[in-house]
Amino acid sequence: MELWTGLYLVSFLNMACCLPESSYTVHLIKDSFENAQNYCKPGSFLTNIPNEKEMDKILKTIWDMNNKTTTSFWIGLKKDKGICVEKYLPLKGFYWTVDNSTQSDAKTWKTQPASTCANVRCGLLSVEYSDSGAKSNGFVDAGCKQKYPFICKRNVKLVCPRPEILATHDMIEPSNDPYTRQIVCPSGARFNLTCSKDLIWTLVGDKNVDISQLCMECKKGYRRDASGNCVDVNKCDESKPCQQPCLNTEGSYKCLCSDNEDGICNGS
C-alpha cells in the first residue's frame, strides 16, 4: 500500500485563486483572539481578507449560518505593542497574522482604530444584515482579550494525508476540492470523507467512525449502514426465510411454530 506521511502541498490549481466558499468556517462561540487563533490551527488560520472577492466569499459563509444577531467576528488582524496606529496606511499599522502582510484591497475600516502605540490591538470584521444577505461595515479594532465569534480559513498549503482504508476500494478525488474524498467499496457502498481542521479525514455525518474499516466485510448477518457501522440485517424482512412467523435475532433469525413446546421450528 502506498503510504503518504506528513503534510502535503496542494497543487497550484487548488491554491488561493480558486479557494471555494467552503474553505471558510464561521464559529459562533465567543473567545479571545489568541484562543480563536489556536482553535483554527493546524489546518486553518484566523482569516485574512486581501480583496473584495474573498470578502464576498466570507460574507456568503456568514449569511449561510442563518444567524442575524452576530455582527462582529475576529479575523487575523493585529497590531503589536510598540507599533503605532498610522491613519494613512491601508491597515493603519495592523498586519495579517498569517503572512505579516500590511495590504488589503478590500474596503477596510468602519471607524479609525484607537490611536495608540503602547497597546496590542486586534481586528474584527463588522457586518450588518439585510433580507438578501450579509454586508461588510469594515474592520473594527478591539482589545485582544475580549471575546467574540471568529472566522477560520483553510490553509491551502496543507491538506490531510491520504486516507488509509483497509480492503479493496476506489477513491474519488474531486479536482476542485482537496478537502473531500469519496470511498467506493466492492459492495457498492459509498462514503464521503472530509478533511477536518486537525488534518484528519472523518466521515461526513459521524466524525467518530473508524474510516479505515469502511470497506471491511461485517460478520455474517451484519452489513454496514450509511454511517459505516456494522448493523444487524433483518433477515425476516429482507429474505422472507420462513413459511411460519419469523423472529429476527442478532445476526440470524428463528422461524416460530406454535405446535412445538418451545415455539421454535425444527431446523430453523
TrEMBL record:
Gene Ontology CC entries for this record: membrane
Gene3D superfamilies: Laminin, Mannose-Binding Protein A, subunit A
TM annotation in the entry: none
InterPro entries per record: C-type_lectin-like (IPR001304), C-type_lectin-like/link_sf (IPR016186), C-type_lectin_domain (IPR051505), CTDL_fold (IPR016187), EGF-type_Asp/Asn_hydroxyl_site (IPR000152)
MF annotations from Gene Ontology: carbohydrate binding
Compartments where found: Membrane
Entry keyword set: Disulfide bond, Lectin, Membrane, Signal, Transmembrane, Transmembrane helix
Signal peptide: 1-18
C-type lectin domain residues: 19-153
Topology versus the membrane: Single-pass type I membrane protein
Designated name of the protein: C-type lectin domain containing 14A
Organism: Cyprinus carpio
Lineage: Eukaryota, Metazoa, Chordata, Craniata, Vertebrata
